[in-house]
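Record type: monomer structure entry
Structure origin: computed from sequence
Chain ID: A
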Amino acid sequence: MLTCFIRYEIDPFGGAAFAEYARVWGQAIPPCGAELIGYFAPHEGSATTAYGVYNIESLAAYEAYRTRLRDSPLGRENYAFARRERFILKEDRMFLRLVSAPHATLMRP
């Protein structure tokens, strides 16, 4: 299992648009084959950094998922919304694998 972390640089006045973008992905991503953990928008500190996080089985599964997402009506609409509104200034994507599992239970005296 891989976890995809997407770091967005957003327009500091684009928070509402990013929130709408995230809500739509919340509906579009799961049916296309990824396990959505969530989208995270600025709250305190930076007003320009946001994240999207989801799990995917493998890089091969990711490629198939991206095709399904691009071809889905919600996916097409959301990509068009982001292009039209221009609230995303930069997007970086990385894939990480969990290496600390299984997690131990803290033993207290």
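Annotation 1: The first strand starts at residue 2 and ends at 10.
Annotation 2: The chain is about 40% helix and 30% strand.
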